Amino acid sequence: MADGAKLLLCLLLLSSSPCCSSSELDVQCLKALYRSVIDPNGILKSSWKFVNNGITGYTCKFIGVECWHPDENRVLSLRLGNLGLQGPFPQGLQNCTSLSGLDLSSNNFSGPIPADITKQIPYLTSLDLSYNSFSGPIPANISNMTYLNTFNLQHNQFSSEIPRQFDSLDRLSSFNVADNLLSGPIPSSLQRFPASSFDGNQGLCGAPLDNCPTRRRRRHRLHRINEESSIGAAVGFVVGFVVAFYFPHWFVFSKRLHPYIFQI
Ligand SMILES: *[C@@H]1O[C@H](CO)[C@@H](O)[C@H](O)[C@H]1NC(C)=O
Ligand SMILES: *[C@@H]1O[C@H](CO)[C@@H](O)[C@H](O)[C@H]1NC(C)=O
Ligand SMILES: *[C@@H]1O[C@H](CO)[C@@H](O)[C@H](O)[C@H]1NC(C)=O
Ligand SMILES: *[C@@H]1O[C@H](CO)[C@@H](O)[C@H](O)[C@H]1NC(C)=O
User: In this structure, are residues 90 and 74 in contact, taking their beta carbons and an 8 Å threshold?
Assistant: First the structure.
């Protein structure tokens, strides 16, 4: 980076950092998250000890908390994977105003992603909710998280369609919705990801998976199958009836008649 740019960056960081108002919001964020999450193994409880000593930066040593700078509380990312956590999607994140990464993977979180998630944490570059029990639709306005480049929802219970608006997430370099309950067509700009990003959803279709049936063709085919099977049933019924009526001995004496029938 050019020296001028470096200096500018330093000035920006300095001007936005030390005097705690944004830092204090980040502490509020962590407190709200701590209150909203169920922590059966007591992992957060043993590490997230909030104090009122006016020292900034102590929250940066909490398990799972990464700060932009160790001497201030501004949270860069929350890495809370595999801690046995439960409960709904964590609350209070809008006060982590500089959050760029959120990893809640391999816990037991459940319930929907809040519809206003983009308003809460607009600058995310990485969102990993994989291996939980989240459910409901994937909020369409995640498409407004324009910086998102890693997005993993693998192995949850998300249902409904992948929002078509996700076509506008043009920075995505990693995307995975495998093992959910999704259906409908895969948005075209996501078709560059491999089938393994979409496997394990019964109703998803289109590249890189199988073609989507067009509605007309499907209805036509159903119609035809119906027609064929009802004609088949009618013919079978009539033939069976006629045969049984006129040739009852075929049924009664069928064993004895076998040789004759074969001769005929
Ligand atoms: C954010 O922090 C402010 C100031 O402490 C607080 O009043 C507000 O309730 C917090 N918002 C959330 C969503 O926790
Ligand atoms: C996950 O949470 C559900 C309730 O939300 C509970 O029934 C289940 O036992 C939990 N599973 C684990 C592995 O903690
Ligand atoms: C996101 O979309 C939901 C409906 O899909 C809407 O209720 C909500 O207000 C939207 N939020 C933002 C921030 O656009
Ligand atoms: C969200 O993204 C859509 C396109 O996907 C755009 O039309 C809309 O204006 C965006 N909303 C905001 C609040 O940025």
Answer: no
